[in-house]
Automatic annotation (TrEMBL):
InterPro entries from the UniProt entry: V-ATPase_G (IPR005124)
Single GO biological process annotation from the record: synaptic vesicle lumen acidification
Keywords assigned: Coiled coil, Hydrogen ion transport, Ion transport, Transport
Protein name: V-type proton ATPase subunit G
UniProt-listed Gene3D superfamilies: 1.20.5.2950
A Pfam family the protein falls into: V-ATPase_G
Coiled coil: 5-39
Description of how the protein assembles with itself and partners: V-ATPase is a heteromultimeric enzyme made up of two complexes: the ATP-hydrolytic V1 complex and the proton translocation V0 complex.
Family membership: Belongs to the V-ATPase G subunit family.
Amino acid sequence: MTSQSQGIQQLLQAEKRAKDKLEEAKKRKGKRLKQAKEKAIAEIDCYRLQREKEFRNKQTNVMGSQGNLSAKIEEQTTETIRNLTCSYHKNMESMMKKLLSTICDINPEVHPNFRHAV
């Protein structure tokens, strides 16, 4: 009976050691999973920051080029207005003379289709 009781004690102790090892393995696994999760979160944050930085750079480039485009259009508009004003002042006198001469210089003559009533 003692040998059976000793055998049972040995089995219980072996079972307890196996259970302890299993619990320790579960704890190590949980710890590794937690570390992997933290590492993944850190990598995701790093990637997110990198992509946001690239987006801001692209956005700045696009907005900056739009600002340059706006300034370029404004400059072209100013140049066109300046050219038109210069052309107006240059040709105004001659156009006024032509217009007034056409209006004021009238040569009265009989229209060719007019029939004399004789």
